[in-house]
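# nightly structure sweep
# worker-07 picked up a monomer target from the shared queue
# config: single-sequence mode, recycle default, output format = structure tokens
# input follows
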Amino acid sequence: MVVVNEYVRAFEEIGVIMLLFAAGVEMELTSLRKAGPPSLLTAPGGVLPLTAAYYGHAAMGDHQPC
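# output follows
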């Protein structure tokens, strides 16, 4: 069993940063340019449902500030 404390969270954040850095180092600029136009079409597809759910939840009166 792992106890989640500040040390575990710190290692978690460092691991994510290292993973993203390694992925960025391995990616070539040509593949990034090739993936650009489809990603511009895909990105709103993920943001729109999230935004609609947030405002729908807030409109029902269940929203509590963080």
